[in-house]
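User: Could you check the structure of this?
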Amino acid sequence: ELEVFVVRRRVTVRTRRWTTTAESSIDHPHPNILRMNIRIQPRGDTSREPVAPHGLLGQTFDRDGMPLFGRTDDYTRSADGRVIKTLAQGEGAIEGTAADYRLASPFQAVGWRFSRFNASATAARDAKALHHLSNAEALHRLSNTSLLLSGGLLQRVNLQGADVGSRALNVAPNEAACRRSCLSEARCVAYTFITSSNVRRPCWLKGRGYRLEANSATVSGVLRP
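Assistant: Sure, the predicted structure tokens are below.
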């Protein structure tokens, strides 16, 4: 059972248990830089599955509702236009290391550390055993690197994921207007405003479950815990 849909820049692959979407973008949070966004969603309740999902993405469906903050990179470009070399490999937010997920061949199903192929029952990962940062710890680390501005604003901080609200609210012309948009949306607990010019939708409202990352072209505010 396999369905494939192609709509403009988006490809969706759907099976009985999962939906995977890939879409190219040059928009938020890295304007005018081409990248590929990947989204994977279960079509049912993973907590009812005897074999818990795993892999770099699959392990995030670990059924505990706990957000994890591992090592991250600053993906912004330097002033002279050079591309920043990335170093983070999920440390603190994945089981094992990135090397444990390298496959000997493109379709290798067995023989690697976290393979679930042919398994009859496996437990989800234990997130409490990982050396990740809590949301409060992540905020504290950012404030210790001079990213915290007066008035409760986080300078050069992007709140990634957990977008809420309509697209009409994304066009706020400045940070203050973005803040008011967040206050007008019942689900909004925080927001990120893109300070660089020529961005069609600079204001992004956030519900609970966002993660923090450094980005020199953004400023963020947290209005509710």
